[in-house]
């Protein structure tokens, strides 16, 4: 074999080998498995680590649709949409439909000063053919470090003793106003004893149908100077239940209110609760006009952010019975010094995990001799479809 032939053969072999190695070099290897989401179960189900941080995040919420018919158990006998207090029937001409989407974010992490948390709740609503007035509402948004909480939340006058019963129409006789800016501190002891002190700004979101010329002082409103509303409370909780007392001073109206509540776990399936409230503020009454613009009666108006029931005192009570893992029966009754009586019962049935259907029936009877509602009653039925996540 000639030298020329050997050189050509060697060159071809080299080029072929180089081409093969070059082709192998550009083939991407299979990516290794990467854990993009790390579960953070130290704070409960649903939390995961935000990538690149030690902060745990939980995203939740619900979508619900309510259908309501019959009379309006919340009826106050008037509306003020025209700037006057005009008589209004509690009867609905057709059913109401309300759709709501609530999106909730919770974060948690550990620091040298304790557990650092945030919570926010965004709410969007549609009712009877139009966006509801609370659409796009920030229902809650606060920061919590240990026992210190700053931001927007329901008043400690409501949250510390617990809301009311597990019924949808639980606040026909209202046990305190709702959202407020606040700075609060909660002490939690090892023996079941806890205490809270909250400085609050007040709010207006729970006040509807305010007639023209009726000032915020009569209805309860946001503070107007640097003196905050003050809420304080004590609770003792054990496996059998709890006892809670809470008191509030309304700095704007210069009135106070208090509540005492007891919860009892009779069995693992059956629980009962009762609560009483007393307030210092006296109710106001405003004239209601008929079709001929003549005064035909009055309606009660509240002058406190906290003592929102009729008359000096009010009582509430309720029960819950877990019939089986999917079904809970709830009931609640309430009565106040204006002789208003309210009762509600429902059955919450979890059709599949995360999807609950709840039919409910409510009844209200008014016997306020000063009010246009005296002697009237209302029966209301509703059903709620809710997908929680």
TrEMBL record:
One of its GO terms (biological process) is monoatomic ion transport. Keywords: Cell outer membrane, Ion transport, Membrane, Porin, Signal, Transmembrane, Transmembrane beta strand, Transport. It is a multi-pass membrane protein. Its main location: membrane. GO terms for molecular function: porin activity. InterPro entries: Porin_alphabac. Residues 1-22 form the signal peptide. It is found in: Cell outer membrane. GO terms for cellular component: cell outer membrane; pore complex. It comes from the Bacteria. Forms passive diffusion pores that allow small molecular weight hydrophilic materials across the outer membrane. Belongs to the alphaproteobacteria porin family. Consists of 16-stranded beta-barrel sheets, with large surface-exposed loops, that form a transmembrane pore at the center of each barrel. The pore is partially ocluded by a peptide loop that folds into the pore lumen. This is Porin.
